[in-house]
Specification:
Number of strands of chain B: 7
CATH architecture of the largest domain in chain A: 3-Layer(aba) Sandwich
Shape of chain B: rod-shaped
Number of helices of chain B: 7
Number of domains of chain A: 2
Largest sheet of chain A: 7 strands, mixed
Distance between the termini of chain A: 107 Å
Oligomer: heterodimer
Strand content of chain A: 15-25%
Radius of gyration of chain B: 48 Å
Strand content of chain B: 5-15%
Number of helices of chain A: 12
Distance between the termini of chain B: 51 Å
Strand order of the largest sheet of chain B: 6-5-4-7
Number of domains of chain B: 2
Number of strands of chain A: 14
Helix content of chain A: 25-40%
């Protein structure tokens, strides 16, 4: 009776309302998801895989500018018997920036590295760290490519054109060679209207979209779908292609032959025609490796 | 409680609860958003050396694809958050380029500012929140029903009270005569009592009883007091003797009638001081003008039937 009387009173309704309001506030506070954000490593620069020799602490370090190739190659090398006999793990690094490849070449960090021979030469890495070429992509030609006319190599032609170049200075076809042409024509580069792009594909986008009049790049088969082969002018012939180098501080021919075999096999899977066209530097027969004379010329 | 009032109360309570809930959510969300913004900025700052951002000095165009990939993977960890990273860029940025619900946070680096464009998506009406609003609706309906019950009980109580007051209206005042103390008082103020001597007390009681029985009787001063009245007076006197108020033999109620009556009137005057209109009922009428021994005058309590007299210790 007493409780009933208390309940049937306006004061208890007000008390109840007060409690419910506090409850509503607490609910509002609790319902908002307040999980702390936890980020893993968002930008990975390497991949590691273990060979069957789990007790072996030696690591085979691979460096390539491409993430896909680094991942594929490390996995293949991990599964290889010869590698498993010598190494416990394969670490594949891929460069995120131009400076990364300079660090790897200049300090001889990688055991197996994909590099341009001009960079190797600049650091004298072949003599300093005993890097030996294993397989090489074929030589190529650098072109000025235009969409509307055949470019003419003359000072007056370039001066009122927008020119697309690559922004990384290690590129020969997209940066060094065209700039050499400008230098030979006595053009002050500061007077040119140059737009930089970060890759050959981006250069092609710029040209196709009309953002630039001329780009400097190589010619690949698929380009004829977008541009005319009549509107290209060669800058320089026989640019030595990129090569895979193996650090050969010991006469480790087993590893050399195994690596060469994998690289040759991998190149066949590449999409671009250019990357399928590789030539080996070594003749692996009867457990001996012989360097093919005449192909090691710089 | 009317239907209108019911819906007004329930919607009022519902709006109040929803408002508090909403404000609480906004409050917490803003706090969390602020924290998460700092966490995201920290992560971007950590990844900044590896982000291929355009650089004016190095004539570096930056890798747009890598940046978009980075922003996508960053946003994939922000699914539970209200924040999204829209873009990361270097150099000056115009605030007018921002769309609605976007804001810029700037990181100062040695190579100039790095701007992070965030978008905030504040969604408060998620399915789980809708359940809360439904719950609040139920609570507000409950409170309205509760209030309705309380109100109906109140009105029942007040109805009872009014019925009681209607019942007591005709006899709002009762004269209380206590034989044990020989006092006269009235029901409104029982503390205020007046003592009466034995003779007037007995006579008044007898008069009241006699007049209640014979409403139209005329009692003249020049006639003897009726025997019936005397008998009643004697009876009350013997009751007083029983109660131990007196050991004297009973007085002659015919003697000094006028004096007895004025003693009664004086006491009633005192008791009914604040209610003069009640005197008409309880007061033995006085003779006006014609002289106290006039044939026409009657000291009988003509209206006593309307009165209410309570006798204690009868």
């Amino acid at each position: 009776m007493n409780i009933k009387n208390t309940v049937l009173h306006k004061t208890s309704i007000v008390t109840f309302l007060f409690i419910v309001i506090v409850f509503a506030w607490v609910c509002g506070q609790l319902i908002v998801n307040d999980d702390e954000l936890v980020f893993p490593v968002l930008i990975e620069t390497s991949t590691i895989c273990r060979t069957t020799a789990t007790a072996n602490d030696n690591e085979l370090i691979v460096f390539t500018p491409s993430k896909n190739i680094a991942a594929q190659l490390s996995q293949k090398l991990c599964d290889d018997n010869v590698v498993a006999k010598q190494y416990g793990a394969v670490v594949g690094y891929w460069g995120y920036k131009t400076s990364d490849s300079l660090e790897f070449v200049g300090k001889g960090i990688a055991d197996l590295i994909l590099a341009k021979n001009n960079i190797m030469a600049a650091f004298k890495a072949e003599s300093t760290y005993d890097y030996m070429p294993v397989v090489g992509f074929s030589d190529y030609t650098a072109f000025f490519i235009s969409s509307k006319e055949k470019p003419i190599i003359s000072k007056s032609y370039f001066l009122d054109k927008k020119i697309g170049l690559l922004d990384y200075p290690t590129s020969r076809s997209g940066h060094i060679l065209p700039k050499q042409v400008f230098k030979d024509l006595d053009i002050n580069i500061a007077n040119l209207n140059i737009l930089y792009a970060s890759s050959h594909n981006e250069l092609r986008e710029l040209l196709a979209n009309g953002k630039v009049d001329i780009i400097a790049s190589f010619w690949k088969e698929s380009d004829k779908d977008r541009f005319s082969k009549n509107y290209i002018t060669p800058i320089s012939n026989n640019i030595t292609g990129t090569r895979w180098y193996l650090k050969m501080q010991q006469n480790n021919t087993d590893l050399l032959c195994a690596v060469q075999e994998h690289l040759m096999a991998m190149s066949k899977d590449q999409e671009l025609h250019y990357y399928q066209n590789v030539s080996p530097f070594w003749q692996c027969e009867n457990n001996t490796a012989v360097f093919k004379i005449g192909e090691s010329n710089e | 409680m009317s239907r209108l009032k019911f819906s007004a109360v329930s919607s009022c309570v519902f709006l109040m609860l929803s408002f508090v809930f909403y404000i609480s959510m906004i409050n917490k969300t803003e706090l969390i958003t602020k924290q998460q913004k700092v966490q995201i900025e920290k992560q971007i700052a950590l990844d900044l050396p590896l982000l291929d951002l355009p650089n004016e000095l190095y004539k570096h165009a930056g890798n747009k694809d890598a940046l978009v990939g980075y922003i996508d993977s960053l946003n994939s960890y922000l699914r539970m958050s209200n924040l999204r990273v829209i873009d990361i860029s270097t150099g000056e940025i115009a605030h007018s380029d921002l769309k609605a619900k976007q804001f810029i946070s700037s990181l100062a680096t040695s190579e100039g500012p790095v701007n992070i464009i965030f978008s905030v998506d504040e969604h408060y009406l998620t399915p789980s929140n809708k359940i809360f609003f439904l719950f609040f609706l139920l609570i507000s309906l409950f409170v309205a029903v509760w209030l309705k019950v309380v109100e109906s009980k109140k009105s029942k109580l007040s109805l009872n009270k009014s019925i009681n007051s209607v019942a007591s209206m005709p006899m709002p005042l009762a004269i209380i005569i206590d034989l044990r103390n020989k006092t006269l008082s009235h029901s409104y103020d029982k503390e205020h009592s007046v003592q009466l001597a034995n003779k007037p007390l007995c006579f008044y009681l007898a008069l009241v009883e006699y007049c209640s029985a014979n409403g139209d009787v005329i009692l003249n001063h020049n006639k003897n007091v009726p025997d019936e009245l005397i008998e009643l007076a004697n009876k009350y006197f013997s009751r007083l003797t029983e109660l131990g108020h007196t050991i004297r033999k009973r007085p002659n109620f015919n003697n000094s009638l006028e004096k007895t009556l004025s003693e009664i009137r004086a006491s009633l005057d005192d008791v009914l001081n604040e209610y003069p209109e009640e005197k008409e009922i309880y007061y033995p009428p006085k003779a006006y003008g014609e002289g106290s021994r006039s044939r026409l005058h009657s000291y009988g309590l003509i209206n006593i039937a309307k009165g209410n007299i309570e006798i204690i210790g009868k």
